[in-house]
Amino acid sequence: MRFFLAMKELANIEDFGDDVVAFKFRNARMAGGSRSLAALLALVFFLAAPSGARAGDPLPHRLFSIDLTGDDQSTTVMLQFDREPELVLKMLRGPERLILDLPATAFEMPSEEVVPKGLIQSIRYGAMDSERSRIVIGLGGPFTLEGPVRTTDENGHHQLTLQLDTASRNAFEAMLRDRAAPADAIAVSTQKNGRLDGNTAQDKPFTVVVDAGHGGIDIGARGRNGAKEKDITLAFARQLEKQIEKIDGVRVILTRDDDSFVSLSQRVRIGRQAGADLFVSVHADSVRQAYVRGATVYTISKKASDAMAAELADSENAADAVAGLDLPEEDEEVTDILLDLTRRETKGFSLRFARKVVDSMEEVLVMIKRPHRHAGFRVLTAPDVPSILIELGYLSNKNDEKLLQDEDWRRKAAAAIAAAVKKYANVRMAAFR
Fold it and tell me: Could you give phi then psi for residue 414, rounded to 5 degrees?
């Protein structure tokens, strides 16, 4: 039915626009052959349109190119869109970055064409959620910004031009005060991602929050053959959700159930607001040693168990910076005795659950040597939620990369983790009966 409506609508449009098709149709003079062409074009447009657009949502903006010119003293950035976008610019320090916040945008240029140049050391771009996208431009030091200058080319495409110049620290700080971003610029709805309900503490089921690492603009690690960590963790989180839902009396909440960015602090907040009894964050990182493979289970500790654990924690803790969020200040020493006791108790529960997960996974999966390790992962910092981080494998290892994309392996690994959840949940729920 929608196809015929699309044909009818196209036949009644006088000017469909250069961005879709360069033909014009006029009802009074449309011959039979033209109507056939209109029907064909309607079908092409209908099939090509995003699902949201078919439901009446506005089409995303299209970004055709990001062109860089200049040198290490002055660099120009020009972006070419199909139409004029709303734009919010922010500047951050430590490291120095320029943030471009956009409405939902389809990035249509090949990634290999966007190569850092001049002052620019890195460029990342992608979705923050279904309504917003972001470009993060990393620079090698203090800079000043001129623009954006908005122009239109001969094809009617909208161009945004930004001028970046090397600057003194004082000049950068002065401009930073005018364009600074808040510490957590992205507000993610826990109602959407967490699917929270109105259960009270008395009748709340045993709750497990499953956290798919990375997402949206934050791709995470890349495999040797191109696998993206954010895709692997989301697929695994959905499979783990299915396995845990089989356990009586246990509910599951995902911190994200699509390709959206969720900040580290928001992931922790979702767990706490859900009153979670367990928090399980899943990842699939890369390390410099390509021979390293197998699953690893991490709990939190100020001091890392080894150099690799410390390196992974540093990498994961920088996820917000990758997405253009300012890094938080280090927490001050906790002096509240009750909170300190809560943290100690939570850490004990985390260690017990981690051991159960290791025991369960070792029965069916390849595990790294010394599979239970610890480091200062920010996503595990909830003082009242037992939390673990599972490295499912390492994308830097070709064998792990292949397994991580295998549906049967995901099912087996998720079932092993769910079995550990069941054992832990049965003990905890029995303690409150």
Answer: -65, -40
